[in-house]
Amino acid sequence: MPALSDAFQVEMRKDDSTRGLWWGNQEVGIAERCAGDRWAASGRDGESLLNGQADDHLFADSDNALIRARDAWRARPVRVSEILSDDYWIEDRPLGGVTSLWLGRIHLGYVRPKMNGMYLAYTTDDKPIHTDDAVKYNVYADQDQGLKAVQHAWRTHLRRILRLPLAHDQ
Question: Would you tell me how many other CB atoms lie within 10 Å of the CB of residue 21?
Answer without folding.
Answer: 28
